[in-house]
Amino acid sequence: MEIFYFPHFQTSSSLAHIALYTKVTNAATLRKRIINAATAQGPLGDGEREAVNFSFINARLITSRLHLQTAINQAILAQSQNSLRTRTVHSEILWALNSTNNISEAIRRYGISEASTDLIVVRISGPEASTTAIRESISRVVIGVETTLTMLSQLTDWASVRKYHKLDTEPMIFNDTEVANNIVVSTVAMKSVIA
């Protein structure tokens, strides 16, 4: 697990705990659990929402650590300015990653699907949150192999990234992942300004 620190935000949202999981075997069950938690009522619903209070990201569409950090930064910024376009800071990360403003599309593309095998799990918190406790919370909901973010470059599905960001028709970009990554990161960084 890695921690990104954002000192320029409120203390309560200054940390992002990030875990990369490969070989995930319970994506379909986890997706159903997230959907059910969103509509559950009462104390049971509150408990279930807390249990899955993470951003579950399709790791195959993340081009770099900077791509991920930029989306997290944009989501925390939106939360700090009371301008979330989604219900939570965790779903806002998915919205920030998507190249369009369509929230449903962002969740469908960048969120967990029934076929997901590689996931990035993010929890936004303050320094009072224990890394150990967050790791344990994640391990209670995700069945897979935790690995380091250095593995990210081996997981990226560049064909899908180019398709979703409409870079697949540009021959100069098509074979250059560094240029494609720079464009994708810039898109995420500018999205809140353009939206």
UniProtKB/TrEMBL annotation:
**Mind listing the UniProt keywords for this protein, alphabetically?**
Nucleus, tRNA processing
Give the principal location in a single coarse category: nucleus
* Record Pfam families: CGI-121 (PF08617)
Q: Where in the cell is it found?
A: Nucleus
Q: Does the keyword Ribonucleoprotein apply?
A: no
On whether Manganese is a keyword of this UniProt record, the answer is: no
InterPro entries registered for this protein in UniProt = CGI121/TPRKB, CGI121/TPRKB_sf
Q: Please identify the protein, giving its name as recorded.
A: EKC/KEOPS complex subunit CGI121
User: Which organism does this sequence originate in?
Assistant: Collybia nuda
